[in-house]
Design brief:
- The complex is a heterodimer.
- By secondary structure, chain A is an alpha/beta fold.
- Helix content of chain A is 39%, strand content 21%.
- In chain A, the strands form 3 sheets. In chain A, strands 2-1-4-5-6-7 form a 6-stranded antiparallel sheet, with helices on one face. A 6-stranded mixed sheet of chain A has the order 8-12-13-3-14-15, with helices on both faces. A 3-stranded antiparallel sheet of chain A has the order 9-10-11.
- In chain A, α4 (147-171) crosses α5 (174-218), α4 (147-171) packs parallel to α6 and α5 packs across α8 (296-318).
- Helix content of chain B is 42%, strand content 10%.
- In chain B, a hairpin with a 6-residue loop joins β1 (54-55) and β2 (62-63).
- The mean pLDDT of chain B is 91.
């Protein structure tokens, strides 16, 4: 699929903007703070109903406006589909598909699929488990939108159970706790087991792509792997290589066993200590955990490998390419990684790239160029130095084979 | 901000459930323009509702007497009891004219976040009725949302050891709807609750 048109109203720095895109590569060039990332953030919001930069919707609204509207026309199998979301912080968002009546925001999930790679993704390797869980769950939803509901149900039940544990701790009313805790255990175990099962199956499918993508990006044989680290007792760490995933019943039983085991600690701390919200994705490079041991460059390669693997997985299962978004990442990569990344993405149906400096993007990849300046987007005049762009201005002589040249990049 | 009493009216209306500031303002100006008699009638009803209306001693439905119309109706079955969250749920069930038993209003659903535990619902009263009345089946009709389901689970855990048959209203596809528009959760539930129609 590809994004054909993006229309923003009151979103971030944009009062009103309409921008057309074509398949292939589009590069948005602009200095920092000019509004390039805002554009791809809007695209990501339509695909995931969330921003890759902030956790709440408030910052997405242009100063002085009450709401923002993001609209897009997406072309899939030659057919246009328009998607619209009205972002109302503090109130329910409203969504629309095509010209029809309003739908629940959740129902637009899947109409536009994106894989977005941004500097923030370094936290996938170096940061907390929460970021890695979100990576898995977002991919789960991109693959099968119904998981959005399961995930939000799990969060709601978890909040209720935590509230109950916290109340019990303050009121010291053990009888009341014993009376109603089993109810929440039952519901949390059922929902949590389904979510865990889905994550395990996702991991089984994703893992091979991760190792492959890492090797391609870093040009090495690294043995990069991902494994699921569970908080559930008796559920062995699931090796992502072989296909065996425990059944939902086994996971449900493990959750109940975990509740029983952690009961006194849970009451003491007033929080739930067992379940998918405590799990992690373990990243290993060779024999060592990536976190703490990987170099800066290796961490970048790993983060990139996770996103590219997600892209490959979605592409393999839904038979249409997601839109690949590379937000400000070329500046972070060394020349070798830049060139190899450029080669890897050359056959993607659509790639949106943002860069502060045009030269950061390998010249044969840049595709259509847009200048982003103070919230306005223009087509730059043909660059007279463009023909000289391949002449190295620094000592970064590129040794990439010429077969890495993207063929569909220029429209 | 409007002056004095108009703003007071808007503020009071705005405290009602489902009424936001804009709706409150619209209702307030509607009342200002309405016939004096209409407004008078409304204010009289508001004044007496708190005094006159009480809850049925048996089922806790709203009532003007010690027993509500349903509990006082001798033609209704005493062996079936349908447990609902709120009195408004009784109205919904009654519109079906399918159910000929009696009701029990819990007064909400379990929700630890809101500080509502089983003790805050009329569950003790339900247990007392099960002991005193010749009840043969308890039908749980709490809302099919998280808190309603949790309440249903709680009740079934409480009642099953007594050997009391407990049933739960089915959830699934809406009648007259299209399969293609059903969301996955509903469809999944419909699968779980499917019935044999042959074989």
């Amino acid at each position: 699929m590809y994004l054909r048109r993006l229309t923003l109203t009151g979103f971030r720095s944009y009062e009103q903007l309409e921008l057309d895109f074509e398949p292939g590569v589009t590069t948005l060039v602009g200095r920092n703070g000019q509004g390039k990332t805002n554009l791809v953030e809007a695209v990501g919001y339509l695909a995931t109903l969330g921003s890759h930069r902030v956790a709440t919707d408030h910052p997405l609204i242009r100063a002085g406006d009450e709401q923002a509207v993001v609209r897009a026309v997406v072309v899939r199998d030659g057919r246009d589909q328009s998607i619209e979301i009205e972002i109302n912080p503090g109130r329910a968002n409203r969504a629309r598909l095509g010209r029809g009546a309003a739908v629940r925001p959740r129902d637009i999930l899947g109409s536009l699929r994106t894989v977005l790679f941004a500097p923030e993704d370094l936290a996938l390797v170096k940061g907390d488990p929460a970021g890695r869980r979100r990576f898995l769950d977002d991919l789960l939803v991109a693959r099968q939108p119904r998981w959005a509901a399961a995930r939000s149900d799990y969060d709601k039940i978890l909040k209720q159970r935590n509230a109950l544990l916290k109340n019990a701790r303050t009121s010291r009313n053990d009888a009341a706790l014993a009376d109603s805790l089993p109810v929440w255990d039952t519901h949390l175990a059922a929902t949590g087991a389904n979510l865990t099962y889905a994550r395990l199956r996702l991991l089984r499918d994703l893992a091979p792509y991760v190792g492959q993508a890492y090797d391609q990006v870093s040009d090495s044989v690294s043995g990069a792997r991902i494994d699921y680290q569970t908080s559930l007792p008796g559920l062995a760490p699931v090796p992502s290589g072989d296909g065996a995933v425990p059944t939902v019943e086994e996971i449900t039983a493990a959750m109940h066993a975990g509740f029983a085991e952690q009961r006194s600690r849970e009451v003491e701390r007033g929080i739930t200590l067992v379940g998918p919200h405590r799990d992690d994705l373990e990243l290993t490079l060779g024999e060592l955990p990536a976190k703490g041991y990987a170099s800066h460059g290796e961490s970048w390669s790993f983060a990139l490998a996770l996103r590219l693997a997600g892209y490959q997985l979605l592409r393999a299962d839904v038979a249409t390419d997601p839109v690949l978004v590379l937000d400000d990442v070329f500046a972070e990569l060394d020349v070798g990684r830049r060139t190899r990344l450029a080669a890897l993405i050359s056959d993607c149906e659509q790639v949106l790239i943002t860069a502060a400096v045009r030269d950061d993007v390998p010249p044969d990849l840049a595709g259509r160029l847009y200048d982003v300046r103070r919230g306005a987007v223009t087509v730059p005049p043909p660059d007279p130095s463009a023909s000289a762009a391949t002449a190295p201005t620094t000592d970064e002589v590129e040794s990439d084979p010429s077969d890495a040249t993207p063929t569909r990049a220029i429209s | 901000m409007y002056e004095g009493v108009v703003q007071d009216l808007i503020d009071e209306l705005g405290r009602l459930p489902g009424v936001g500031p804009k709706s409150a303002q619209r209702i307030a100006f509607h009342l200002l323009q309405a016939d004096r008699a209409d407004v008078q009638r409304l204010s009289e009803v508001l004044a007496v509702v708190k005094d006159k209306v009480r809850f049925c001693d048996l089922c806790f439905n709203v009532s003007e007497d010690t027993l509500c119309r349903i509990c006082g109706d001798s033609r209704r079955s005493v062996s079936l009891i349908c447990v609902v969250e709120e009195p408004k749920d009784i109205m919904a069930m009654e519109r079906t004219r399918e159910f000929r038993g009696r009701y029990h209003v819990l007064g909400g659903a379990i929700s630890p976040i809101d500080g509502i535990g089983p003790d805050d619902l009329r569950i003790t009263e339900l247990m007392r009725r099960l002991g005193a009345e010749p009840i043969e089946e308890v039908i749980i009709a709490t809302n099919p949302n998280l808190n309603g389901e949790a309440t249903a689970t709680y009740l079934s855990r409480l009642l099953s050891p007594l050997g009391m048959p407990v049933s739960r209203l089915a959830s699934g596809l809406p009648v007259g709807g299209d399969l293609e528009y059903a969301d996955e959760v509903t469809l999944g539930r419909a699968f779980e609750g499917r019935r044999l129609i042959g074989g």
